[in-house]
């Protein structure tokens, strides 16, 4: 900016201007007296010369500076007025610039124009300072438009001048360059600073770097050139650290356009020693989320950018990420530092978008360690819940253009990896990556996402297929128009349906139907292909493909809204009872899923009545069983089950059955017993839709009898032929499935009479199951009839054929029978069983679950049933009551727990890959509901479950005597108690109660349900915790550590079964190990507790009889010794790892306390190691080798430094510790030799690492003695290999030694098999 010292009071005109001026005073430029008067330059008669002279500046010839007769402000004002008033304006500006260029072509004139003008005023005062002519011309704005420094060829004169200074042999003084930088314009400053590395000598780099560092803090406009210059200078590590710290301090205030250069300089100035610290600080200051605009503003910014008016913040962010990518790609230390920093982020709120972006960058590099490291960190953070969907959404939406251009392949690869993981939380996060990639990126990326999801579906892996189909369905719902463009990709899955389950096929056709049958939808071209596939599958004679056609056709009907295709499905399914049953089940699913459809106006009636005739052709005498209605009822109906089954087996469906079903077309069709339950389900759902839940028209089917045979025939099963036994098994399966479907239908009725009948049908089910167990035991190899047709096939299901005596069977098996007798005998037509039946063997029905009809979620509401008085039904029996008994409670709780485990389990069970366990068999209806729906229903039952829990506990508190008649009830309530705790644990541990956003990509209205359910869960959890605390206070007195005392109390009491035998088996050992771990983890002194068990309990066990146990610890016997041994060794190793390491700065008391702790630990370790002499089985030896090495490593790391500092003051304690520990190491050495001679790979795998640690111990002790100037107490000897019995291993006997220990000063020969023994002689 120009400075004005004094304004002239006289306006000197052109005629009054002197032609010669006295130069008596010193020139401001030359600093010396003028020897001659310079002449005026009158040769320049151009526009430039005329206007300059008229404005008050006199151009001089030679080396004399130009003169100015007026103040520089007046000069600039006059010249500006002349240019504007010229008739040739604005063309006169170019003429003026041309005259200036021609004038400065002469070097002397150019020099004069660069020098300050000499004032020449009328009063003779020339003391005021004036600028040069060129600087005054630059002060006129209209002359700045056309740069006088650039010619027509675009040559920049200052840049050319600076270039002349580059690569000189010697630069004498660089101070003038920095002075020029301080006064020059910004553009010239940038040119000079950028050229400094090419101008300076190496010796001048440090001084200039310090000046540039100061300039960087003063002027942020020069950030980019200064950092470019600093990057090219040769600086010392100390100076570079100082400069980097200054740059890091200004990182938060730097301009977004300069941020990439700053990040690049910081990363390229990192050394291997400070990489972790610098990267951690850089990550903390990088806030890329603040560098991007919201999506709406980004759209407007992109429109402006397309017009060429401005850049985008996305470009700057992309350059920043490119800087990081180049650094991690070519510097391994930086990539490792980024991985460590990302892994050390501990909380979810601290994990930022830059962390996620850097993981994508690391994965995109070609280095394998970076890719593996990025995958590992991402999995760890996702598993820990530190990367949530919200962060992923912000990252993708805020940096979509950057991500899809550079790192989309890495994002897609990571999503594929996560989707294939067995951990559900990783699978969910992989789904979020797919979904947000589709919604945030362009069409190319969307096509790749759909193609990858289709690949997952075609893989045939159950978990991948389910998640991929769910994601595709969600994308169709959320982005239907975009997904319609890729319908041809999804249609390709139709060629891979052989590897899909029925539920997956159902979802696939639902997906395709949603895309194909939308009005005015661009994906309607796939309709014909779907129809062709469906008709082809329906016409197949193979049941597997016919099943696919039925499922697809019903799904298409549900999307089209027309029923024409149903006629084809019905005609194709008439020839097969399995296909007809599946058709009814699929229609049932459609009716329940789409209420108010075309089928709601239809009526289906069933006539299941038949005269009570007993033809002689039946294998068993028939009778009406399980009638719950009044016997004198005039309208008598019965389910004709036994005649129907007999006819089906005899004629194989060739003749018309006696029971007829009339559909809307009034066409008689043959009914197979397989179709009985599916058709009733369809009938019930249609009635529910038509009559808004009222089942009055068909309520007679709940209490009507069944045409069966007397169940006393089970007692004569040994005298029956195999076909007769198989017939009886099939009859029981059909009966149970009918009752299960009846319970599904009427469980939601509010009428007390209906509730009573539902509970009674549950009692019928439990009773019939106990009978079925016995008849299955007498019929090995029997294959039951199918019951679930719309789920996975039950082919290949492993059926249990082993029989178990009731007294040795699983808990609840015998109780189910006796409980069913007790409760069912209150009703007529249910004969009581004899006592001798209890001794019959039975088969567990666990493996037969796929052959029972699935219970709906609504059945769980029966748990809320309390006492219902029979007086409501019959005034004559008002004193009798029927309640939900123990057997029914166990039945419902087991079904509830299986549903929760299937739908809400967090971590899947680990199974061998070659074992194809079909977990979804029997859950076809449950698979069509969301986990939130099941959880919300179960949450409403939490008060009821807590009430049942208290009732079970109260029963055990009151009934403490073991009467034989009460054993069955005890077993049932014990099973109910366990099931209740498992159900509550599964409900409470469901992650969406804590993290609602991590449950499903599309929650929608279910978020409100989750919020409400969370409050109920918290309330129930408080109730359960209060109940547990009350019971704990009742059991034991309040101890200092309650948990440890309670666990000890369980360990110190004998565990027996209901029959009085001692508990044993894997389950018992697992429970015992858990209790022992709890006791040792929560006790006040772990070392003392281990010494108590090993020093008292085990000697008592050794002195006791073979089958006896320890007197102090009754749970410790020879069968559970391994459990105790492994638990003590593991907890001892954990305890010593928690001992603080010894430090030289510790006080004497602290050192003594630590030394005492190590003495106790070594003594416990010595006791445990010596136990292998008595208990020498393989498992005990394996535990000793494993934890012995870990204990030795912990002692070397934490104990030996303490001995270094404590040796002089506590010589005797250290001596005792080392001698005791040396005995343990010698026993470990013998154990290594024993493992070698046994040639057991399980044991020998631990030997190399253990021997290495033993050798390190020898040399570490020698180093400790040397440090304390006591090396003469240490000497070496040869230790021969011996087995556990102490006998020498002859095959490894040393050639030149007969004694076990031989004094020597040298190490044995390297080829010798003898080990080295350290002898410490204090």
Distance between the termini: 89 Å
Helix vs. strand class:
mainly alpha
Stretches where pLDDT is under 50 for at least 5 consecutive residues are 1-37, 146-153, 296-311, 598-616, 653-669, 804-839, 867-880, 907-917, 997-1004, 1034-1041, 1292-1322
* Strand content bin: under 5%
Count of β-strands: 12
The helix count comes to 52
Q: What is the 3D form?
A: flat
Radius of gyration: 46 Å
Describe this structure in words.
It is built from 52 helices and twelve strands. It has 1322 residues and is mainly α. The two termini are 89 Å apart. A three-stranded mixed sheet has the order 1-2-3. Strands 4-6-7 form a three-stranded antiparallel sheet, with no helix packed on it. The longest helix has 30 residues, at 1006-1035. InterPro entries: FANCD2.
Identify the notable features of this structure and list them briefly.
1322 residues, three-stranded mixed sheet, 12 strands
How would you sum up this structure in a few lines?
It is found in: Nucleus. Helix content is 56%, strand content 3%.
Question: Can you lay out the helices and strands and say which pair or pack?
Answer:
Layout: H1 47-55, E1 57-58, E2 67-68, H2 72-85, H3 91-103, H4 107-114, E3 118-119, H5 133-138, H6 141-144, H7 157-163, H8 175-183, H9 186-199, H10 205-218, H11 223-232, H12 237-249, H13 259-268, H14 275-285, H15 295-306, H16 313-330, H17 332-344, H18 353-364, H19 368-383, H20 389-398, H21 400-419, H22 424-440, H23 443-459, H24 462-478, H25 480-484, H26 487-491, H27 502-516, H28 527-538, H29 543-560, H30 564-573, H31 577-593, E4 605-607, E5 623-625, H32 641-651, E6 660-662, E7 668-669, H33 673-691, H34 700-703, E8 706-708, H35 722-746, H36 752-777, H37 813-824, E9 868-869, E10 881-882, H38 886-904, H39 924-927, H40 931-940, H41 942-958, H42 967-988, H43 1006-1035, H44 1042-1051, H45 1066-1082, H46 1086-1103, H47 1121-1137, H48 1148-1170, H49 1178-1206, H50 1211-1238, H51 1241-1244, H52 1247-1267, E11 1274-1279, E12 1315-1320
